[in-house]
Amino acid sequence: MSNFTIPVRVSEIKDVAPAIREFTLVADNGEDLLAFSAGSHVVVTMKGEGVVMRNAYSLVSDPNDVSGYKISVRLQEESRGGSVFMHTKVKEGDVLSIAPPSNLFAPYWGAKKHILIAGGVGVTPFMSYIPQLLQSEETVEMHYMFHSSKTGAYVGELAKQLGSQLFCYDSDKGRRADLSDILSNQPVGTHVYICGPQSLIDGVLDTADGLGWPKNAIHFEAFKAPEPGKPFDIELSKSGVKLHVKADSSILETLEAAEVPIESSCRGGVCGRCFVSVLDGDIEHRDEFLSADEKASKKCIMPCVSRATGPSLVLDL
Amino acid sequence: MRLAPKPVQTFRDDFTYCNSKEAIARFPFPFPEDEYRYSVNIEPHQPKDGPGSVFEYFYDIDEHYLSEMAERAMVMEERPSSCLMLPHMDLACWDLIDVTMHSLVSDYPDYFSLEKQGDQWTWHNHLLKQKDQFTFGDSSTLPEPPLAYMGKQVQGDFALMDQRENNLFMDAGLITCPADWSLAFDVGMSFAQWHGPVPFVHSEGIIDRALKFLMSIPQKQPTRRLNWTLTINPRMDTSPETYPNWGSDRTTITPENIGEKVYLRVELQVFDRMPRSNALMMNIRTYLISMEDLVTNPEWAQRIHRTMRSLPPEIVDYKGLTRFHPMLVEWLSQFDQ
């Protein structure tokens, strides 16, 4: 079965920080888009020259507003090309295709208090959190770390919504957050949400652990773009088709380029939608989805991020 | 051709419920092979088997619509705990109204209509001769709480599962035709907790895989599966709360009445992601057919004999078939010569 997609038109593009560009997407047929929940993302399909790229971006608009979605893209020069494409090729009026919003980072509605910790472009999922949390009269506190020479989008907007509950730390002005300070003396029932670089996630996890926070009160947006690796071959057992996975492509992207039907959603090893059984070959598991037992069994793979350690894999496709 | 709702029949007391010839022909027969195998048998909930099939639309409104709605109203009156919602599920219930009303007007424009002016909605259910105006999202503008209101207009039970902590929780539901489980008992439980009594699935990792699959269902990609059991008489409400009313029915089965009294009970379970709340909705649509009607299809008659014959004893016990299972296999064998 193919994935359900929605054609959208880029109605507005604006720069919200030196390296971050915001795109407003409206349904190409002029109708309302689907409602979504706080923390949702969409996967955008980008058709470049001879290559199709798909990236997941958090929705940064109010979940109650279905007239259009907003996404914010940080230019990543070193990346696999998706953000460069969005920054340099996409113009107002262009039509892109997106998958319906999906959520792997929802707020915990039973929390007594919500602490949002954002690093750089990691502010994006919280842009949909805040309207919903405030509307539900939840207690919210936000800590936002950025380099104003590159990132730091939406500071004004956030200050309007959160007032004194917004704390900003601009590294370019020498301001740094003290995680231990933030996480100390918080009321029981507080939940923490982190979105940002891995170093920030690890820092919060370590600090919270040291302070005796329960693990299930810490939430983080774990999915990320697939990392490159060594090239290898895959063989599809049912069709006998053989394909080559390039160093900077994932198995999932290789299958899609060959028009092999496969479902997917987050494309970052979290949601589990693209699960494939493996018949032969050694696997380098890079996902957060499979259990340790499943990984050790060598019988399945998440093709969006994981790769072969050897020269080839045989997939049950 | 799609079957129009017929006048109200009963699922209790005098049991006037019956299937028309056409309803028998479209019955969702659940056994894909002779040998019984426990399987999760999940597939995308997309149209299948052409016009008039139970898989044609998102919800199947069939000839039993009015009967099932009348039965549901009775059960909700007798047992208020058949409809429960934890406080954080209000948004999920409105999601259900949104998804359900839009799907019904698009699939059954002769039966239902909806007019929207901003958040002011006017809903018309022509089958139940009901018209309501309300403010979308404001539960105080509905004649009943949102889940009860919507559930009284759609066949099949509803469960709304909250997704958090890498798990699903049964945090709201409208369950008036359960196959021997209690919403009042299960409400608030996690996925593994409410599946506690099911044999095999825990040790073989089936529960973990099913949970992971369900949690990954995105918007606009609903999924379905069939589940089954056997029920004595066409009784919709086989809940633990009413066990005194139906438990002893199992002792009344004889070789003479078995074809008429034993019903195959099939649940068409549909799972769909709710937009605003991220809850997972499950619609459990129950179909009942007597053995007598079922064996009018020779392929089904042969298949169900072989499937029943190969049921593991644990499944026979779990589904509550112990008392009459051998008699049923014997009776069915006449159609598999």
Structural features, described:
The complex is a heterodimer of chains A (317) and B (337). In chain A, strand 9, helix 3 (155-162) and strand 10 form a beta-alpha-beta unit. Chain A has seven helices and 19 strands. By secondary structure, chain A is an alpha/beta fold. Chain A starts with 5 loop residues before the first strand and ends with a strand. By secondary structure, chain B is of the alpha+beta class. In chain B, 30% of the residues lie in helices and 21% in strands. Chain B contains 13 helices and ten strands. Chain B has a seven-stranded antiparallel sheet. In chain B, a hairpin with a 2-residue loop joins strand 3 (112-117) and strand 4 (120-125). In chain B, 35% of the residues are buried. The model of chain B has no long low-confidence stretch (mean pLDDT 94). Chain A binds chain B through residues 1, 3-4, 34-37, 40, 63, 99-103, 106, 108-110, 216, 263, 265, 271-273, 289, 291, and chain B through 44, 46, 88, 95, 98, 162-165, 208, 212-213, 215-216, 218-221, 273, 275-278.
Query: What level of helicity do the residues of chain A show?
Result: 10-25%
Contiguous uncertain segments of 5+ residues of chain B = none
What form of chain B results from the Cα inertia axes? globular
Distance between the termini of chain B: 34 Å
* Tertiary shape of chain A: globular
Distance between the termini of chain A: 13 Å
Percentage of residues in DSSP E strands of chain A: 25-35%
Name the assembly state: heterodimer
The H-and-E topology of chain B, N to C, reads as HEHEHEEEHEEHHHEHHEEHHHH
Sheet with the most strands: spatial strand order of chain B: 1-8-9-10-6-7-2
Task: Tally the beta strands of chain B.
Answer: 10
What is the total tally of β strands of chain A? 19
- Rg over alpha carbons of chain B: 20 Å
Question: What is the overall number of helices of chain B?
Answer: 13
What does the largest sheet of chain B look like? 7 strands, antiparallel
Main structural class of chain A:
alpha/beta
Order of helices and strands of chain A: EEEEEHEEEHEHEHEHEEEHEEHEEE
